[in-house]
Amino acid sequence: MVRTSSYCEKSGLKKGTWTPEEDRKLIACISSHGCRNWRHLPKFAGLSRCGKSCRLRWMNYLRPDIKRGNFTEEEDNIIISLHESLGNRWSQIAAVLPGRTDNEIKNHWHTNLKKKTKQVTKIPPSSPVEQKETQNSKAEGCDPKPILTQNHQILESTPRSPQPSSSKVSDLAIFDSNNMTMGQDGVTSVNFSGANFWTEPSVTDTNDAYNVTSANFVAPKLDDDMILSPHSPVSSAEVFFPFMSYEEDCDGLDWLTNLMEGEHLDN
DNA sequence: AACGGAATCAACCGCGGGCAG
DNA sequence: GCTGCCCGCGGTTGATTCCGT
């Protein structure tokens, strides 16, 4: 199947899975130039990719504020609830779940939640199965109804087990605990040494607890000898970090600690 | 251990909307 | 108002991984 795109019509442009080297180039380019023009960005970055592909990679994977990890019960409930009212408007649903991309939510819906909702509609309310599920929910302390914080923000996530793929961000991320700080609001932020990553973040959130600004978000300095892939030695700890928010006693910090201790590199 | 089907998820594509000229 | 460019969205594909036999 050969389809053309107004965005990627040029032949010779690379397609498929992104390599760590391409990721590094893209991050470096956005770091220095920002991402106001996706069409021209690949040229500056030295990438044989179309702008659309770069944008997608950034928005769905490399963006610093992406929360990595399994969806929580709470997030599932919110997605289900919002899907009932909004339908397949994944971007709007994603807006309520900071750190989650529309693509991720969409995939999660099709792979997990769709079945879940079908089960719920098929099974009579008084069925033993549902009763059991309800009991489980209660036992786990999960409210079956969506729980939204005052500003519609989910602050927790369970860690997602890393997958062995060369282009996964979990492979790329190395953390420096010295650069992690916990704000008064319980939000973890990370300052990287190096130049300002982004003087004008394109990804902004009106949510105070989630705002990523140049003040609290300084990106890694991408030296030539700095390698983000776990397949090669890392010369500095000041590397890219998926931005996330946690409550103080959240398990997510344990996950971070594990990552920092290199558990994600054990493959 | 090997195989095949199922599940997962990153990435692709076309389309529509916004905006500048 | 029209046209072209660019961006973002949602549907879909396909490579990879998982899991049961």
Automatic annotation (TrEMBL):
MF terms in GO: DNA binding
Domain HTH myb-type: 10-62, 63-117
Protein name: SANT/Myb domain
Major localization class: nucleus
Pfam families: Myb_DNA-binding (PF00249)
InterPro entries in alphabetical order: Homeodomain-like_sf, Myb_dom, Plant_SW-associated_TFs, SANT/Myb
Species for this entry: Dillenia turbinata
Protein's UniProt keywords contain Nucleus: yes
The keyword DNA-binding appears for this protein: yes
Stretch list, region Disordered: 115-145
Gene3D superfamilies: Homeodomain-like
Compartment(s) where it occurs, according to its Swiss-Prot or TrEMBL record: Nucleus
Top-level lineage group: Eukaryota
Amino acid composition bias (Basic and acidic residues), ranges on this chain: 130-143
Residues annotated as domain Myb-like: 10-62, 63-113
SUPFAM superfamilies xrefs: Homeodomain-like
Keywords attached to this entry: DNA-binding, Nucleus, Repeat, Transcription, Transcription regulation
Assigned GO CC terms: nucleus
Family matches, as SMART domains: SANT (SM00717)
